[in-house]
Specification:
Two copies of one chain form a homodimer.
Chain A lengths: L4 E6 L7 H14 L3 E7 L1 H10 L1 H5 L1 E5 L10 H8 L4 H11 L4 E4 L3 H12 L9 E7 L4 E5 L9 H19 L5 E5 L10 H12 L6 E6 L1 H6 L4 E3 L2 H26 L3 H9 L1 H11 L7 E4 L4 E4 L6 H16 L2 H19 L2 H4 L3
Parallel strand pairs in A: 1-2, 1-4, 2-3, 4-11, 6-9, 7-8, 7-9
Antiparallel strand pairs in A: 5-6, 5-10, 10-11
Helix pairs in contact in A: 1-13, 4-6, 5-6, 7-8, 7-14
Amino acid sequence: MAKTIPISLDAMGGDNGAEVVIPGAEIALVRHPDIRFLLYGNEQVIRPLLEKYPRVRDASSVHHCEVAIAMDTKPSQALRQGRWRSSMWRSIEAVKTGEASVAVSAGNTGALMAMSKFCLRTMANIDRPAIAAIWPTLRGESVVLDVGATIGADAQQLIDFAILGGAMARALFGIQRPTVGLLNIGVEEVKGLEEVRTAGRLLRETPLRSLNYAGFVEGDDIGKGTVDVVVTEGFAGNIALKTAEGTAKQIGGYLRAAMNRTFMSKIGYLFAKGAFDLLREKMDPRKVNGGVFLGLNGIVIKSHGGADAEGYASAIDLAYDMVKNELTHKIAQDLVHYHRGRFAEAAPTSEGDL
Amino acid sequence: MAKTIPISLDAMGGDNGAEVVIPGAEIALVRHPDIRFLLYGNEQVIRPLLEKYPRVRDASSVHHCEVAIAMDTKPSQALRQGRWRSSMWRSIEAVKTGEASVAVSAGNTGALMAMSKFCLRTMANIDRPAIAAIWPTLRGESVVLDVGATIGADAQQLIDFAILGGAMARALFGIQRPTVGLLNIGVEEVKGLEEVRTAGRLLRETPLRSLNYAGFVEGDDIGKGTVDVVVTEGFAGNIALKTAEGTAKQIGGYLRAAMNRTFMSKIGYLFAKGAFDLLREKMDPRKVNGGVFLGLNGIVIKSHGGADAEGYASAIDLAYDMVKNELTHKIAQDLVHYHRGRFAEAAPTSEGDL
């Protein structure tokens, strides 16, 4: 028997819990028959659903949990209520013990991040985790991080994010030295946030083997796909992500209204339906569902809470890809190389800056 | 003769200077024949152009300036080179002396803001100016500020921005108490940036006559038009603005590619051409060209540096509207009311927070 990929699922997470998780697992399993699932959640809810999805049933072990974390639970509350025993916690814990290679949850982001940090801990030399999003661009896809794990980041944390995001881009796109840009306002070296300028100077002065630093980028460079990895702190990153989502919805709304307006435009729509379907597919947010928690001792994938089965399956696909392409190993390698290089090459006087 | 609206133009600002400014002035003048222009710039460049646009010539006075600020000049450099004598400075100065009611420049944002601050100074009780953008939404338009005047803002500065933006929304949309939201990540009261939470608490505790505080909004609420005014500090605001611009271009690119793909889709495009023209008009960035500098003793409008004559005319239209609708007066009123209310009603112990 070929090697299987064990993935733990928080079966209770998301707006619709197991009703979406199990059918989503079915879709992903058809695409990747070598997945084995560890399902965490209420057995009374999961078991009857598995009868409808025998493929998932045969590829899964069910681990009963009494507690499910609600979507509106605050992180501190979630930790108090759900540590050790909630479906969310236990799906993460399976990564810690090595039973699973990666965990997926559609539960609330704050709680999931708090539990992931508490359970998996940040990697050596990494202060803070980040959430990385895969952003569709005119050139393909880019990795954008942090899109909301923590607010603010100093220069060293931005460099950490660059390394983490670079490793993810290598795993995802198979590029040897992905280009990395720091999100800023204005591309001139003298402009923008102090921490970003410092990080830019350091990345320029000490080139890294694992990434190709391309300087500052602005908000409109994300959609252009100017760089493979866009690095920013979590507040601006989250605002950028949500603003892009909102703009896409807005233009979709304009387009629908315009096509429905006259008899002629309706006929035009029918002729061009294939093109519109393609556009809809291109803009389908379900296709790129999944935020990747980076910088912890193990990978956790956050699915959108409102994802349907197709969207949830995309999050599982992403989890699968990250394991197959050895994301954790790549990150560890890059960090070792960076810190070895840093201590070997950096002049003592510049240490303070780092 | 009816009362005229005097508008000063930095005729040398922008990627194409007077070549765009004069034709743009012509377009705006057709729409608003009561404008009178004060043109600042190199006479040798302006005079010949005016011969081609006699309507502008007859409605303008020309003020020769030796110095023009280049698009890549740093703010400090611009002040050194151009104070007192550049076309940019003198167009702003005309607002200070009262010769003009508002100034328009397509020159570089950093230099224009530095000169505007130096020349006009911030209003009493206002620490820092903001740049307000008019953002097309699914419901119409919203005011978003700050989109890049300064990085970071404390709670009091965010409240100042709310008052400034509220007054602008009243002037622009004719709404008596515009709704105002604070841009944040997560809409729960416990989430997001400390300063934003404090500003939110203060706005909730002390309702203002001039605006209706609606709580936190997220990035996707901007395009939805959830509130009339979105308040944020300049870094996140600039990233949001540029990201939305980038996303709109990206989707436009997808749409063009999809429509060109097959014979059927090309036919569909021809039938629906009216609809596409409407969509293009709706998404035309030239229609909403113009950032409004708020919080200074006088209004300055920044046109996009790459704007064409149509886009520049929109910036002049905006300047005209702001004067006609007495923006400066509205801001002054709202500030007086806020500070009077604050000092009359606020308990001494809460003063420290404000």
